[in-house]
Write a structure and sequence with these properties.
There is one protein chain. The protein has 5 helices and 6 strands; from the N terminus they run βαββββαβααα. It is an alpha+beta fold and 174 residues long. A 6-stranded antiparallel sheet has the order 2-3-4-5-1-6, covered by helices on one side. Helix 1 packs across helix 2 and helix 2 packs antiparallel against helix 3.
Length: 174
């Protein structure tokens, strides 16, 4: 999955990776945040570089039983090759519902913070051709974003049974 955010004006963002992770993966207030992350500090920094991945198995033992390798893969945020653009991506075009939902929440949060527009990947070669506002993006994925955590996990468990057959990382594009 890939999305590009283009923004007009650079301004200070104060998006804590921990708060983003809690929102992305619907973690409770009493749950410790067991998230892999990279980046120089606790916030999305000036260089727009951060990677977040939830260690699902620390929240539910059932993840250990699944025949899939892509559990806990990172969602990355990095500068895009053109100025005033940020790329948010996952290693796979097709992701489990739990990762897809986290991706949509992250894209929406960053685009909203930057007052930017969003372009999604329709195919390997089509990104950066169609743009939408954060409000339109959120409306498009509202049903997924609003799903309760238990439903997201249940769908993801079912998907994980089918996905090992298409468990190849993206080979074209970045």
């Amino acid at each position: 999955m890939r999305a590009i955010i283009k923004y007009k004006h650079r301004f200070e963002t104060k998006l804590s990776w921990e708060k983003l992770a809690v929102k992305m993966w619907q973690l409770g207030k009493d749950e410790a945040v067991a998230v892999n992350h990279t980046g120089d500090d606790q916030e999305l920094n000036e260089q727009f570089t951060i990677a977040l991945g939830l260690r699902y198995w620390e929240y539910d033992e059932k993840w250990h039983e699944l025949p899939i390798k892509r559990i806990g893969e990172m969602i990355t945020v990095q500068p895009f090759k053109k100025k005033k653009r940020v790329l948010i991506s996952t290693p796979y075009r097709d992701e489990l519902m739990i990762t897809s939902r986290a991706f949509y929440v992250l894209v929406d949060a960053i685009a909203t913070a930057l007052d930017g527009d969003i372009s999604e990947e329709d195919s390997y070669d089509e990104i950066g051709t169609k743009w939408c506002s954060p409000a339109d993006f959120e409306e498009k994925y509202q049903r997924v974003i609003d799903l309760p955590r238990q439903d997201v996990k249940q769908v993801s468990f079912l998907e994980a049974i089918a996905l090992p057959t298409i468990d190849e990382k993206r080979t074209k594009g970045v």
